[in-house]
Design goal:
The complex is a heterodimer of chains A (about 200) and B (about 500). Chain A is α+β, with helices and mostly antiparallel strands and about 200 residues long. Chain A is built from three helices and eleven strands; from the N terminus they run H-H-E-E-E-E-E-E-E-E-E-E-E-H. In chain A, the strands form three sheets. A four-stranded antiparallel beta sheet of chain A has the order 2-3-4-9, with no helix packed on it. Chain A is elongated and about 95 Å long. With about 500 residues, chain B is mainly alpha-helical. Helices cover about 65% and strands about 0% of the residues of chain B. Chain B contains 22 helices and two strands. Chain B has a two-stranded antiparallel ribbon with strand order 1-2. Chain B is elongated and about 115 Å long. Classes of the chains: A alpha+beta (about 200), B mainly alpha (about 500). At the A-B interface, strand 3 and helix 3 of A face helix 1, helix 7, helix 8, helix 9 and helix 13 of B.
Chain lengths: ~200, ~500
């Protein structure tokens, strides 16, 4: 290790001065090389983008009919919490593929199934049978028993699932997190602007 | 010693880094910048290093799987030797990093350091702030507990408000239709690879520019920045009234960084790690999700915005805010740097700081949320309110408690803060007004017309009518009173 200085730094004057514009062949080759890279880049980017966009699917691709159990478990006139496993799930989802919803049995054959997620920002709403209200713990949204907006920051009523009765079992069309983007097209529940249900 | 020198020479003749590093270390900085005000940037960088080291140490154990993440955090907390301490260091390190980055930014703004020629340094700094906040949010998600789960729900709900591509944005964010395994995996990738990579690269370029352009000189009133003269003036100042960066200024950075690291360690040891809270089972709905400290202000804003303004605000305000920060050095690239001559800058900074403080404070006790267990978990209506009451009024007190009025209205200091406290309600509303308010709601109160029977309503209103001080009568409808008592005098 006795060496002192390596002659690494090349002195500028040792390089032959060349006008880069005159060596058009080398520049052309570099340009062709860059173009080649661009073509390969685009070719590789297409599958990458497709891969990245793979979770983006139309709503119906994720939704299917899920059973919430026999209708006898839901007494007429009451609202009960029901739980189901999301139809689309992975083995390593743990408990997160479980979903809760509120089932309101209006009469023998009439059901309303509400998403647990507040229409404001998705927090889980709780049902209070004594005051017949759903209340949200996050920003204080409140909804009436029929899901319509009662007060607070939500701009609409609770999200609802389509429900039907098959062989004495209650089924809902579920499969994805209800948000304004995938459920806003549902019928706007009347009184959603904070009007009184006693008005009519 | 000679051996060491030879070893150094062997390496440096190959690396060729000695000379540029020496040049950077010894570059002159203006004397007045060797100040305790100039230590926050280096502290932020040191905290970034701390986060990287503690993050790697946590990644040795953490399982980025929705089914196992929560368990692995509990094992870190309770079963691995000093696992809790590493988690606490990382958690408190993140708090300190956000705080120090914000203080650094405020100082830079106050000292006019974003002006020519340091515009790009400022812009990169803005991105570094955003990346730091991105780390804070994704890090909170990796602590995969109830708050993380529902925080993702809030994030998805915000994303869903984007016009046209809301649904796509939600799917991209969650990696699927619901918050589940795919969601955690992608937040892990962002928190561990994508954002830290960008953060480190941007931070290095940021520091490079500080070294190359020179540290911002101490602002003096009347020393005006002009593009044509600034560089010459700055170099003259640094040469005439300057000292080498090492060791003239850097020793303060070293002391402050060590103090910050010590503070992180003390906080970690004393206060311990953050959570994890309840397990991430979305069917457990007895939860009141809340974001970490630095997002509480946003949580508060979201509860106060009128419904009509919410989506525009959520989608437009951040864009305007970031655009404003990026545009600042172009709008005010020249002129006074001293805060003595920049009253609007001081006002803006104070306003933002006060607003942030107030909103954060509100976020800590969420007065807008009903207290879910006030009706059942708290004390009943106190005796002094019912001691001299009639049976009907007492029945009203029971209705008041059992119909959850107290979740939103406090009485005797206990209950929700969503609606007004009702201890003096009888002095504000007449009997008729009370009946109308209970039955029809309004003013952000639900209507109880369908949920109370007429006897319940009567009892409740009779009870509310007693809520006035002994020396102040209940409000009455004067015209009603007059009509009932005095016959109309005949002319």
């Amino acid at each position: 290790m006795s060496e002192l200085e390596l002659p690494v730094e090349q002195k500028e004057e040792e390089l032959t001065p060349v006008d880069p514009l005159t060596v058009s062949r080398r520049w052309l080759l570099l340009k062709v090389g860059a173009l080649f890279n661009a073509v390969v880049g685009v070719a590789v980017a297409v599958p990458v983008v497709k891969y990245l966009l793979s979770p983006v699917k139309p709503d119906n691709a994720y939704k299917s009919w899920v059973s919430l159990g026999t209708i006898d478990t839901f007494p007429v006139g009451e609202t009960r919490l029901a739980k189901f496993t999301n139809p689309v799930s992975l083995e390593w989802d743990g408990a997160t593929d479980r979903v809760a919803c509120w089932v309101r049995r209006i009469s023998e054959k009439e059901f309303q199934v509400f998403a647990i997620n507040c229409a404001h920002l998705g927090c889980p709403v709780r049902w209070f049978p004594q005051s017949q209200l759903f209340m949200c713990p996050c920003h204080g949204g409140a909804y009436y028993a029929d899901g319509s907006r009662a007060s607070g920051p939500p701009e609409r009523g609770l999200f609802t699932y389509d429900a039907k009765i098959v062989d004495g079992k209650l089924q809902i069309n579920a499969g994805q997190l209800p948000t304004l983007s995938n459920t806003a097209k549902l019928v706007q529940i009347e009184n959603a602007r904070g009007g009184s249900p006693c008005a009519g | 010693m000679r051996r060491l020198k030879a070893l150094y020479t062997w390496f440096d003749s190959r690396l060729q880094l000695g000379a540029p590093i020496k040049e950077m270390a010894l570059h002159p900085v203006p004397n007045k910048t060797a100040s305790w005000w100039y230590v926050f940037g280096s502290a932020a960088f040191v905290l970034l290093m701390l986060q990287i080291v503690t993050g790697i140490l946590l990644a040795l154990v953490y399982v980025p799987s929705a089914g196992q993440a929560w368990n692995s955090l509990n094992i870190l907390n309770h079963q691995l030797t000093l696992g809790w301490f590493l988690r606490a260091m990382h958690g408190w390190g993140s708090n300190f990093m956000v705080a120090v980055v914000l203080i650094h930014m405020a100082q830079v703004f106050l000292f006019g350091a974003y002006k020519f020629p340091r515009e790009l340094t400022w812009i990169l700094g803005v991105f570094l702030l955003l990346l730091t906040l991105g780390m804070a949010f994704t890090g909170q998600v990796l602590r995969f507990d109830q708050d993380a789960y529902w925080g993702l729900g809030i994030g998805a709900s915000i994303a869903s408000r984007v016009p046209f591509i809301g649904s796509t944005a939600v799917h991209m964010m969650l990696g699927g239709p619901i918050i589940a395994g795919a969601t955690l995996s992608r937040f892990f990738a962002f928190h561990v690879f994508v954002i830290p990579g960008m953060l480190l690269a941007f931070a290095c370029v940021h520091v490079w520019m500080v070294l190359k352009l020179g540290i911002n000189e101490w602002p003096m009133p009347g020393r005006i920045v002009r593009r044509s003269t600034y560089l010459a003036k700055y170099h003259e100042l640094a040469k005439k009234d300057g000292r080498p960066f090492v060791p003239g200024a850097v020793w303060k950075d070293a002391f402050f960084s060590a103090a910050i690291l010590a503070a992180v360690a003390v906080c970690a040891a004393v206060f311990g790690p953050y959570g994890p809270g309840g397990q991430p089972d979305p069917t457990i709905i007895q939860t009141a999700p809340k974001p970490d400290f630095f997002f509480l202000w946003l949580y508060a804003v979201l509860s106060y915005l009128p419904a009509d303004l919410e989506t525009p605000f959520l989608l437009i305000a951040p864009v305007l805010g970031i655009a404003g920060l990026v545009a600042l050095p172009f709008y005010a690239g020249e002129g006074e740097k001293s805060w003595h001559r920049r009253p609007i800058a001081i006002l803006m900074l104070t306003t933002i700081a006060v607003a942030w403080g107030v909103l954060t404070h509100l976020g800590t006790f969420t007065p807008w949320s009903p207290k879910m267990s006030a009706w059942s978990g708290g004390p009943p209506v106190p005796m002094r309110y019912t001691h001299d009451a009639s049976p009907l009024q007492r029945q009203g007190a029971i209705v008041f408690q059992s119909k959850q009025c107290r979740n939103c209205h406090s009485i005797a200091g206990v209950g929700g803060l969503r609606g007004p406290a009702l201890d003096l309600v009888a002095t504000r509303l007449t009997e008729d007004q009370l009946i109308r308010q209970v039955l029809q709601g309004g003013g952000n109160m639900p209507a109880y017309g369908k949920n109370l029977s007429p006897p319940e309503t009567t009892a409740l209103v009779q009870f509310l009518e007693t809520l006035h001080p002994a020396n102040q009568p209940a409000a009455i409808d004067a015209s009603h009173q007059a009509a009932m008592t005095e016959p109309v005098p005949k002319p």
